[in-house]
């Protein structure tokens, strides 16, 4: 019974999309943060599918996000590395995988996370986007030097 | 175009070279018309006496002139203009901008919107590179900076002069001793970064333990508003007060520095002791800032 349920669910989860992006091998539980870091909100016009804690051969469990009719840019893809470095990106065109790639940790992220320092100029009405250098020990605010060392999702704008 | 925003942007070679230049300026080896016809905009969005006057003195001694906006209330920021717009406009009026602002990162932002060099004269609890350079210059007048034991005393959390100096000293294998009220310790991100650079940081709880250990006492003001009431402020500030009696255990060559203004941190009787270097430190602001202006404006 369990197997058939799982098969049925899997059938739904892996249902192919015609055009768009499938983000696979997301660390389990991070799919919603991936959506958040991509700036996708409830107002999106396109179909968006999110699956969490899906059984996976390589990872035991994984999350999957499918975006219909939207191909992610490299900048967007690389943001995902901040929260799920093992994610893979499949660009789908006419039901076929047109391109498959991993995510690369960016050296600089703009407008993705908010500086936690209330005294930072990036938290004012100035016409700038937050900018962080991505270093081994965390994200460094280029304005005030504040370092975000953990829980990046909670700082996503 | 070179900006001077954070001491962390510069290596030891650059710092040493600037201090050497300041030294030559101090020895009157400079062209008093070097910046003739040049204009320095002095944008101070926070109160200042020493930094502002010494920048104005520095540009005047080099033959240039300065523009100031007076108080914040008198300028367009008070009307809601963004700093970015102010900088865009002012950079059309001057050849360089010196800025002090209450927000951390303000000078970095200014450098992104300016078409002329920007010098940070203090941004919130962040950086104050010109103060750091004159602090280093003052230390160097008394002893080589390499390998010194230095105590940072006072408000180490919000004190930008302490942050900037600690960062710069990581180039010189200095050992850092700290003494501060609970809750006003060095920000963790800064102490982690210093430790990563190999700097030894030794926290202390008692001023008497520090005095015999160090070559430099760097005293900063603990602001009254950091404490819930006057009584706790006086308790803390009196426990850090530098007195001649306390200095009786000091090394002979120990120097006492303070970015000023001081309130109660240093007993006025210390002023007459050979250890007291804070007024020379303040005076050194002019040659050091002259060297900075020449660096970015020439």
Structure description:
The complex is a heterodimer of chains A (157) and B (298). Chain A has helices at 2-13, 31-37, 74-80; strands at residues 20-26, 48-56, 60-68, 88-93, 96-102, 108-110, 131-135, 138-141, 147-148. In chain A, the strands form two sheets. A five-stranded antiparallel β-sheet of chain A has the order 2-3-1-4-5, covered by helices on one side. Chain A has a four-stranded antiparallel β-sheet with strand order 6-7-8-9, with no helix packed on it. With 157 residues, chain A is an alpha+beta fold. Chain A has two domains: 2-102, Alpha-Beta Plaits, CATH 3.30.70.140; 108-155, SH3 type barrels. In chain A, a hairpin with a 2-residue loop joins β7 (131-135) and β8. Chain A contains three helices and nine strands; from the N terminus they run αβαββαββββββ. By secondary structure, chain B is of the alpha/beta class. Chain B folds into two domains: 7-127 and 285-297, Rossmann fold (3-Layer(aba) Sandwich), CATH 3.40.50.1370; 129-282, Rossmann fold, CATH 3.40.50. In chain B, β6, α7 and β7 (200-203) form a beta-alpha-beta unit. In chain B, α2 (50-61) packs across α11 (285-297), α3 packs across α4 and α5 (129-142) packs across α6 (160-169). The longest helix of chain B has 15 residues, at 12-26. The mean pLDDT of chain B is 93. At the A-B interface, loops of A face α4 and α7 of B.
Distance between the termini of chain A: 43 Å
Radius of gyration of chain B over all CA atoms, rounded = 19 Å
**CATH homologous superfamily grouping of the largest domain in chain B:** Aspartate/ornithine carbamoyltransferase
Largest interface: A-B, 19 and 24 residues
Q: What is the averaged pLDDT score of chain A?
A: 87
> How many independent structural domains of chain B?
2
Number of strands of chain B: 9
For the record, the CATH architecture of the largest domain in chain B stands as: 3-Layer(aba) Sandwich
Rg of chain A, rounded, reads 17 Å
The number of distinct helices of chain A, counting runs of at least 4 residues, comes to 3
